């Protein structure tokens, strides 16, 4: 049996003591599974490539396992926590276990989906153990509203990790894959076992790395316009794009006109297209409008 090292990070006993003192029971509703293994949080920080000059934003810090490991490595950490009890307790945990770094920690007590600004310097990295039920919307929201975030590492359910990092043509390639790729180069960055969580989830977890594109995607249309095409293409993923984009374009003939103008086969399906191809289709929406105007009225 190895003897515990004097450590500012939280171990299994610390987590359970803290939870008991706060009267906290992890809830399924908020997807709460607390990391209880110090080696795992250090591995996450290492994999995230956190640097001494980084300003890190963490979503869903819980009892503070990952927060403390981030504070060891980064210049400063801002944590966004929705839970009233956890948000109230976290600053005291940081002050007690890392008094020398406490002034470099800030807490935002809010739903991450409503956060559009953060205190202090702009964040350069996002590192988080995201609740399974909100992982993709939270990730996309943070990438949209904080363009200063260069590097992201999130721990999510393994299936979500696969979807986010899937290449075109993969069976699990879909809306999350395309939208994440709009912002960043995305790849799987490792697997996390169930036994490092309390309570242990009944699903596996995975790490996903997102490195923001050095230059935004070159397109003449907005992100919103591109995402509208993506949503339409995957709403009926078994259909050809000619059929799937009929609602978006106004008619199947109009969808075909936009697809042909974009250099995409009307018989293709959404899962075979890159984010660049979706952008090209959005750019040719005017072809859809012209074709729709030529459509004969209902017979």
Task: Reconstruct the topology from this structure.
Blueprint: H1 12-22, E1 34-35, H2 38-47, E2 55-59, H3 65-73, E3 76-81, H4 84-97, E4 105-109, E5 125-129, H5 135-145, E6 151-157, H6 158-165, H7 175-183, E7 184-192, E8 197-198, E9 205-212, H8 223-235, H9 241-244, H10 246-249, H11 252-261, H12 275-283, H13 285-294
Parallel strand pairs: 2-3, 2-5, 3-4, 5-6
Antiparallel strand pairs: 1-8, 6-9, 7-9
Please give a structural write-up.
This protein has 299 residues and is an alpha/beta fold. Helix content is 41%, strand content 16%. It has 13 helices and nine strands. It has helices at 12-22, 38-47, 65-73, 84-97, 135-145, 158-165, 175-183, 223-235, 241-244, 246-249, 252-261, 275-283, 285-294; strands spanning 34-35, 55-59, 76-81, 105-109, 125-129, 151-157, 184-192, 197-198, 205-212. Strands 4-3-2-5-6-9-7 form a seven-stranded mixed β-sheet, with helices on both faces. Helix 5 runs parallel beside helix 7 and helix 8 (223-235) crosses helix 12 (275-283). It is elongated, with a radius of gyration of 22 Å. The model is unreliable at 1-6 and 294-299 (pLDDT under 50).
């Amino acid at each position: 049996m190895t003897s515990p090292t004097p450590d500012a990070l939280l171990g299994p006993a610390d987590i359970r003591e803290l939870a008991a003192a706060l009267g906290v029971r992890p809830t399924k509703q908020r997807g709460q599974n607390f990391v209880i293994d110090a080696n795992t949080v250090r591995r996450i920080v290492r994999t995230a490539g956190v640097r001494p000059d980084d300003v890190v934003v963490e979503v869903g810090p819980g009892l503070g396992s990952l927060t403390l490991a981030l504070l060891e490595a980064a210049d400063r950490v801002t944590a966004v926590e929705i839970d009233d009890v956890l948000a109230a307790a976290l600053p005291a945990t940081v002050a007690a276990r890392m008094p020398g770094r406490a002034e470099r920690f800030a807490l935002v007590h809010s739903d991450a989906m409503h956060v559009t600004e953060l205190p202090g310097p702009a964040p350069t990295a996002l590192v988080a153990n995201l609740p399974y039920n909100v992982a993709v919307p939270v990730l996309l929201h943070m990438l949209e509203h904080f363009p200063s975030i260069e590097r992201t590492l999130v721990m999510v359910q393994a299936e979500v990790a696969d979807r986010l990092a899937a290449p075109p043509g993969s069976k699990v390639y879909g809306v999350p894959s395309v939208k994440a790729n709009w912002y960043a180069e995305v790849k799987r960055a490792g697997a996390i076992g169930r036994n490092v969580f309390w309570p242990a989830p009944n699903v596996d977890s995975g790490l996903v790395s997102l490195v923001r594109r050095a230059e935004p995607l070159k397109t003449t249309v907005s992100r919103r316009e591109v995402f509208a095409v993506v949503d339409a293409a995957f709403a009926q993923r078994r259909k050809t794009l000619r059929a799937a984009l009929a609602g978006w374009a106004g008619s199947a003939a109009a969808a075909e006109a936009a697809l042909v103008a974009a250099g995409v086969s009307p018989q293709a399906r959404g899962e075979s297209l890159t984010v660049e191809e979706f952008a090209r289709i959005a750019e040719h929406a005017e072809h859809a409008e012209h074709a729709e105007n030529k459509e004969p009225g209902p017979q």
